[in-house]
Amino acid sequence: MTLLELFQLLKKHMQLVIVLPVACALVMAVASFAVMRNTYTAQTSMYILASSSAAQGQTTNYNELTASQLLANDVAALLESDRVRQDAAEALGLEDLDDFDISVASETTTRVITLSVDGPDAESAASVANEMAQQVSVVAQDVQVADSINVIDEAVAPDAPSGPNRLLYIAVAFMAGLFLAVAIVVLMDMLNTRVRSAEDAEELLGIPVVGRIPAMKGGK
Fold first, then answer.
1. Residue 145: pLDDT above 80?
2. Cis before residue 158, ω within 30 degrees of 0?
3. Is the pTM of this model over 0.70?
4. Alpha-carbon 194 to chain mean position
5. Which terminus, N or C, of the chain has the lesser number of Cβ atoms within 10 Å?
């Protein structure tokens, strides 16, 4: 089947090609607004200092910087620990933090840790992020990982949800419906073995057409 033949085939079944993608997009739109909950992301950043740096004020050297970077990785691991999460949940009066998606970013070339919390509403996401920043400082001192964890930016309640990306889901559903419509049209054409033209007869019989009987008006 040539590209021109495909276009002609799709044009013949234009109603299906239009209706099916639109229907898929509408179903996804309804599902995304009715089923998918909005998620809000709050972020807080922390700066980690080694105990020797804290004692010597602003004086730093290569060894202190390396130690602080390693401490940042240790604190990032503490933020993902069950103890910090449970302590933060208890401080906020929650049973657990299962409704929140918590992620930690720590680069090896910096002493800054970024804590991101995704939650069902803006205020709770910000509260969890700030409380975890406080609890990790307590736990870090308790296990002697670090003596100083300073919050650079406290988490604030976001004004708009960070997800889900409903437009993306709707666009994907529309494209899936379009591909499905094309597949159905092509499959219908392949299963239709009716001879509709002289070219079909030549392809089916393997012999050339030498004559045609024109259709007479009135069927005679």
1. no
2. no
3. no
4. 47
5. C
